[in-house]
């Protein structure tokens, strides 16, 4: 019989790599395989050759775009919240040591045909062109309340009992206009649609606090981004796994996932070789008969020669177009990075417009986002299915991740990591907050 592994992981997307890193650290014997010859799967960052090969077949990249190695184009646009869960996982595992981060320079929102900075503090609320004179004071009072809210303290009105009232009631209490609700819910709390209005307000409070505390960390936006693109994240975790004994194989043909008579996972066959393990973790593309489609996302990768108009010429930005503003059910996101993040040739900007498709003509649905970009040099549009596992893996030892959704940051990816971790190990993932490097040095100096 072949060598036994504890876990086989199929696909090198971020979810899979975080899990193989965490499990390797805990001493599990991990074999990690990918059919692609690059890391990252659906969440890879591609160089020019790979980008054109994926979207244009035989067509070669124009000379004007410059050198292959200058380009790292993300397939899935997402930014990291400076105080978010992914940053906690990165520091917990020390993977931060292999990466360098840069902040995203702006956070904007669309209202009544214009884009403006997202006001996140009371002071900004008072100067924001987004809201009218009287609304400014109401917004200021609302933000003040959010900042000072303590779950254990008594509240001044039953309307503000956040765990037990829907968010719509809190908006009503402060008298916030619908347009203001749009940017609070979609640009601060980063909800994709309006379902949150009827859910407990405490969830919205948590999300606004994540935004404002992340914002307070670096100042210009709550977001950070790894130099050389998001594809660096899975590679960082792959390195962690390798350091702890994990085995990685790229460009490996996966011919069959093998099960016993009772349908339990046995191993993976590649050619005439089968490797065995107790469990398998993988992305939906390896388990097409065990996943179901839950929707479609459209993304347009756009190469620009200029910053996005009306964003103060920043080198990077996120713009949220709240669904109500364009009469949709889901928000449209625009994420832009540039040469200062080592993801494209100098003088270029990379903007990705994305949303959840609601019609048979998704290209038309992202038009409000594309219209914000000005002239577009090259455009690569793709629509992909969002898939989710049909079962939780307890019966067959097959643990499948969800496809990356349309949200603009990594919260849902981290939720999936934690969820799979718990199903595989039977235990909650506990992230210890590690001391920062400065604190470590201080402790050493005092020792
Ligand atoms: C770009 O990708 C191609 C195909 O995977 C690879 O052969 C090439 O080495 C890459 N170029 C650079 C500069 O990394
Ligand atoms: C991270 O680094 C700290 C300090 O050097 C070390 O104690 C810890 O074991 C490391 N964690 C991992 C997961 O490698």
From TrEMBL:
Q: Name one GO molecular function term.
A: Rab GDP-dissociation inhibitor activity
InterPro entries named among the record's database cross-references: FAD/NAD-bd_sf, GDP_dissociation_inhibitor, RabGDI
Q: Name one GO cellular component term.
A: cytoplasm
Could you tell me the Gene Ontology terms of the biological process aspect for this record? protein transport; small GTPase-mediated signal transduction; vesicle-mediated transport
Q: Which family does it belong to?
A: Belongs to the Rab GDI family.
Can you say what this protein is called? Rab GDP dissociation inhibitor
Source organism: Thamnocephalis sphaerospora
């Amino acid at each position: 019989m072949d060598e036994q592994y504890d876990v086989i992981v199929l696909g090198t997307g971020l979810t899979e790599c975080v899990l193989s890193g965490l499990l390797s650290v805990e001493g599990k014997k991990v074999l990690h395989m990918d059919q692609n010859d690059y890391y990252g799967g659906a969440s890879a960052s591609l160089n020019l050759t790979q980008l054109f090969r994926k979207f244009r077949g035989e067509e070669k990249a124009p000379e004007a775009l410059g050198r292959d190695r200058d380009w790292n184009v993300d397939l899935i646009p997402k930014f990291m919240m400076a105080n978010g869960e992914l940053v906690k996982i990165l520091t917990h595992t020390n993977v931060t040591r292999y990466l360098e981060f840069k902040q995203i320079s702006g956070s904007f929102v669309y209202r009544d045909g214009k884009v403006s900075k997202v006001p996140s503090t009371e002071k900004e609320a008072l100067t924001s062109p987004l809201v009218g004179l009287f609304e400014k004071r109401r917004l200021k009072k609302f933000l003040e309340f959010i900042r000072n809210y303590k779950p254990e303290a008594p509240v001044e009105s039953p309307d503000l009992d956040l765990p037990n009232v829907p968010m719509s009631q809190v908006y009503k209490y402060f008298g916030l206009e619908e347009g203001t609700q749009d940017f609070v819910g979609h640009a601060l709390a980063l909800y994709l649609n309006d379902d949150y209005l009827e859910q407990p307000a405490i969830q919205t409070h948590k999300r606004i606090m994540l935004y404002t505390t992340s914002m307070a960390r670096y100042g210009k936006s709550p977001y950070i981004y790894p130099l050389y693109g998001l594809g660096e994240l899975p590679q960082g975790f792959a390195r962690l796994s390798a350091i702890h004994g994990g085995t990685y194989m790229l460009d490996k043909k996966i011919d069959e996932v093998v099960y016993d008579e009772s349908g339990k996972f046995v191993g993976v066959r590649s050619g005439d070789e089968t490797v065995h393990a107790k469990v398998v973790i993988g992305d939906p593309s390896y388990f097409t008969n065990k996943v179901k489609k839950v929707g479609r996302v459209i993304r347009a990768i756009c190469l620009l020669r200029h910053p996005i108009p009306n964003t103060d010429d920043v080198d990077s930005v996120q713009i949220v177009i709240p669904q109500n503003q364009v009469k949709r059910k889901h928000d449209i996101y625009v994420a832009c990075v540039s040469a200062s993040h080592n993801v494209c040739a100098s003088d270029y900007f990379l903007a990705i417009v994305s949303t959840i498709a609601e019609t048979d003509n998704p290209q038309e649905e992202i038009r409000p986002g594309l219209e914000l970009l000005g002239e577009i040099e090259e455009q690569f549009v793709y629509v992909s299915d969002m898939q989710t596992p049909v079962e939780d893996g307890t019966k067959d030892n097959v643990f499948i991740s969800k496809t990356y959704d349309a949200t603009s940051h990594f919260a849902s990816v981290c939720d999936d990591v934690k969820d799979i971790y718990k199903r595989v190990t039977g235990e909650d993932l506990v992230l210890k907050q590690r001391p920062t490097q400065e604190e470590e040095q201080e402790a050493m100096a005092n020792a």
